[in-house]
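Quick bug: Dihydrofolate reductase output formatted oddly.
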Amino acid sequence: MGNVIASAVVSLDGFVADLEDGVGPLFDWYGNGPVEYYGTDRSRAFHISQASADYLDSTWPNVRSCIIGRRLFDITNGWNGVPAVGDHVFVVTHQPPTDWPFPGAPFTFVNGIEQAVTQAKAHAGSDNVSITGGNLTGQALAAGLVDELAYNLAPVVLGAGRKFFGDYVGPQVLLEDPRVVQGDRVTHLHYKVIR
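Here's what came back:
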């Protein structure tokens, strides 16, 4: 069975987006390097540094299932039915969309983080599951469902916004020392949760 990895690009003050869900300079590193890089969607190229490409090569190909919240699903329109990474997306929501124009896309709508992790792990098998940062990360961490944290630190202080761990209230969680990869306008910090 693979690992559950909570991942996001985060500001120095811990935010994954501003209060209007904008990412602004958090995503600068996706477009400022010489290496053309793709996730699952072959029509969406990133241009990143070699160090970031090497780091993503060590993580993204091992992710088969992704878990996102309804907010991200709505903001991105479910990436028009193509997962950003992996081959299946589990969307945590109490109200699945009724008019989404991609009904055959590999998206499953589930009620609750525990159900999402169970289904995503079953789908992924020996591959990994990615949870996008925000309230879902806090919920999964509080439930003891997170094995690793991929904290992609952007050199910006947003001042306010959506927190990487949402409104996390739970036990203290200890992490191993991080694997550190310095990219261009991002520092990749990859932690394993100590059990």
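Actually, after a second look the formatting is fine. Helices lie at 50-57, 70-76, 113-124, 135-142. Closing.
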